[in-house]
Amino acid sequence: MMSSADFDNVFTAACVELGLDPANTNIFALECRRQGMDPSKTRAYDLDKNPSPMWAQFRKLKRAS
After folding, report:
1. Does 64 map to a domain?
2. Which of 3-7, 23-27, 30-34 has the lowest mean pLDDT?
3. In this structure, is residue 46 part of a structural domain?
4. For residues 1 and 64, is the Cβ–Cβ distance under 8 A?
5. Residue 65 falls within a domain, yes or no?
6. Predicted structure pTM score
7. Are 35 and 44 in contact (CB under 8 A)?
8. pLDDT at 37
């Protein structure tokens, strides 16, 4: 399990990698972008089907892809 500081670092790095501004992005928008989904048409449950490790930790899921 990541610490809060580690989580922030991973979040920032993922945003930068995907061309998103970490200051203006939330984890839901980041995960939608990572999975190629439209945030306006996506539910958190949809993202749970193929979660990144960061999303899985955020949602307290038992597994990540």
Report:
1. no
2. 3-7
3. yes
4. no
5. no
6. 0.85
7. no
8. 98
